Amino acid sequence: MPALTIRNGQGARQMRIVATGMLVVMAGLFLLARHLEPVHPAWGFVRAFAEAAMVGGLADWFAVTALFRHPLGLPIPHTAIIPRNKDRIGDTLAVFLKDNFLIPGVVARRMRRVDVAGAAGRFLANPSETQGRTRETASRLVADVMEALDQERLGGMIKGVIDGRLRNLDIAPMLGQALQAAIAKDRHLPLLEGMIRWGARTLEGNEHLIRQMVHDRAGSILRWTGLDETLADKIIDGLLRLLDDMSVDPGHPVRMKAEDGLARLAEDLQFDPVMQQRVAQWRDELLENEAMRRWLDGLWEQGRAALLRAARDPRSALGGKFGETLRQLGETLQHDERLRITINRFARRSAVGFSARYGESIVKLVSETVRSWDTRTITRRLEDAVGRDLQYIRVNGTLVGGLVGLLIHAVEVWL
Fold first, then answer.
1. DSSP alpha helices (H): ranges in 37-169?
2. Whole-model pTM?
3. Which of 50, 288, 304, 338 is the most buried (most CB within 10 A)?
4. Are the C-beta atoms of 300 and 90 separated by less than 8 Å?
5. Could you count the other beta carbons within 10 Å of the beta carbon of residue 94?
6. What is the mean pLDDT of residues 188-209?
């Protein structure tokens, strides 16, 4: 957009030079023709053309200039029209946008004629060379924008959004429902058996601690007779036998109690406020953990780097299995009527919802932005946008005026 504005401004200045140059040429031609008119009658036609061309050019110069500023700096009434009415222009533009583009009913009617799913499907399934260039240009633009943004601020904003979403996530009922569903289909059994095996390995790896604890708590007589070692062996053997029985016997009482405990845990996660509050506290403590913060930082950097690589090289990013998946998705979007209707309905509802929710804010933003511009800014921007065509008016006025003057002079001569 800035490049387009610059090109428009350069074109307007070039045409202004051309129009002014024509006016100067006509003035010089008028003086020359008036001086040479007694020499030959043909110079009368030249004088009439140049004289009328000057009048037409000056009139159109005055009209064009009066739109943006006071001609020659003189406070002539009804000049500098745009600077004097910039607030009204902003309000009118905002109302125009609202009435023609941002009313939910208008958006809904326009979106009914737009096949978003079909267009996306055609683009993904078989992009043409033009679409490929468009995709590459858009990808480079995305990459440039991402690199131009303040990464600390952008990363902080994104991580803040993720952190806020996670803190607002009521995770306890979700965990309870997942655990309940796993128990209903016996998918918890591998977890339970894994816990039993972990308990056996932990017990075997920490026998010395149990023996030391029995030795410390035993009386001097037990230690003197060596019965503390025997007692420790019995405890360890009993615990290992218990764990072995639990692993091979699905109906073992202790195992059944463990399964009952898992079922109660699933119930408490869904319906017990105390348990839900405890899980929420664990969630917050986890999010405040420094290691979790570093993990989120690394996740953001990895994601940003991956997006930049994909944007810089879209052909490579869209190649392989990922590209094939996108092409299959494009084929599905084109031929699956139910999916196409669903996506188009979603796009229409999203556009209508966006206009209903943010339409007033957009209108207010446009109006306040134009109001905040000073007169020089709005004059320069509008003149750069339409000034080229306005300068053509001056050129045409000069030529048309000259032709009219020539015609009148010819009629006078012939009559």
1. 42-68, 81-84, 86-100, 104-112, 116-125, 129-148, 151-168
2. 0.38
3. 50
4. no
5. 22
6. 82
